[in-house]
Amino acid sequence: MDQASHLDASSRLGWAERAQAVRARSLQLAAPLSAEDQCVQSMPDASPVKWHLAHTSWFFEAVILRAHAADYREFDARFDRLFNSYYESLGPRHPRPQRGMLTRPSIDEVRGYRAHVDAALARFIEQADDAAWSRAAPLVELGLHHEQQHQELILTDLKHLLSLNPLQPAYVGSGAAMRVHPRANAGGPLRWIDRDGGVVDIGARSAGFAFDNERPRHRALLAPHAIADRPVNCAEYLGFIRDGGYQRPELWLSDGWAQVQAQGWRAPLYWGDPADAEPVVFTLQGPRPFEPAEPVAHLSFYEAWAYAQWAGARLPTEFEWEAAASQGLLGGTGEVWEWTRSSYDPYPGFRPLQGAVGEYNGKFMVGQLVLRGASCATPPGHARVSYRNFFPPAARWQFAGIRLARDS
């Protein structure tokens, strides 16, 4: 971030407007929900909507306002323990699997907390002296991107929650303006894009926002390969299922096959019986008919790997993906996150951010796989070619799908 660019009055006004818009969108996502909807936690990996709304406010309070706004007064000091996620340097935390036990504070109190933080943040952006604003501006930008990450989690965590209700309730109706499921591909058979390989530049450039895990920009060597022009669709994945894909251990990594056996996986998460002529799929608009041309979603890395084996292909590395995406060669991006074969590791020369936000990414660089692109649930303007998402290989509740690659 260019510090000087944030010091003039017009720039500050822009940041205040952007903060207001991002923060308002979180409340808009919660607007269709009852208080009961917003309190329940469906599994340890997910969080209640109410917790997301409070945690994102806590981030601005703990990381920016308390540290940089001299006149800031806390809304409730007890919230530190409730809404800290994983920042060891900022104190003890309520256990993640028990976030659904937090019936108090009420959703009205959480809205009040958000309003308190919003007002203080707007006042700080407007009134802070140039030195304080210069120090805080990068953290404000990080906080807004952090909130956008939680906006996607609100939707994916909520979808998992509603899917467990026997009533199969819809979050929004079919006429809703927001996107809640991937758009269908244009159609036609999958095509292969041949790539010569060679040395490529990977990672975010120095200008513009990026998370610390996207830097430093560095060089990577690619072997000749081919990459698919679009993600795998539901009809293609149904072919894998009906060819016995979930019953053939030779297609699976050992840990993946163990998950299939232990969890009884027979289809992507949220699919009905794949033996039906047209399986029903649960969505944020409730159950709806199977859409053959839609990118398949809600797959674990293990399922993506097994499908690639069945298709006589493999998953791309994150460097193959970024190199092709940087040249505008990949169709269908932004509908589902795309599993890669790359483990979530630091780039050469990686240095975490200073202070508490140094815990944001670096300490999770073990035991996870990188996903690239974005999904239908990613807020507009949040994605970029260098973005590195990451999840454990068994995670299925995100909008995660498959793009194939193969060696030349």
Total E-strand runs: 11
Question: By helix and strand content, what is the structural category?
Answer: alpha+beta
Tell me the Rg in angstroms.
22 Å
What name is given to the CATH topology of the largest domain?
paralog of FGE (formylglycine-generating enzyme)
Report strand %.
5-15%
Helix content class: 25-40%
**Count of alpha/pi helices:** 9
Number of domains: 2
Largest sheet: 4 strands, mixed
**Residue windows where pLDDT falls under 50 for at least 5 positions:** none
What is the first-to-last residue Cα distance? 40 Å
Level-1 CATH class name of the largest domain: Alpha Beta
CATH architectural designation of the largest domain: Alpha-Beta Complex
The shape is globular
CATH superfamily of the largest domain: paralog of FGE (formylglycine-generating enzyme)
Mean pLDDT: 96
SSE sequence, one letter per element = HHHHHEEEEHHEEHHEEEEE
Largest sheet, spatial ordering of strands:
9-8-7-10
Structural write-up:
The chain has 408 residues and is α+β, with helices and mostly antiparallel strands. It has 9 helices and 11 strands. It has 2 domains: 3-163, Four Helix Bundle (Hemerythrin (Met), subunit A); 192-407, Alpha-Beta Complex (paralog of FGE (formylglycine-generating enzyme)), CATH 3.90.1580. It has helices spanning 9-30, 49-68, 79-83, 107-127, 130-163, 234-242, 254-263, 301-310, 318-326, and strands spanning 192-195, 198-202, 218-222, 225-228, 280-283, 286-289, 337-343, 369-373, 389-391, 400-401, 405-407. Helix 1 runs parallel beside helix 5 and helix 2 runs parallel beside helix 4. The mean pLDDT is 96.
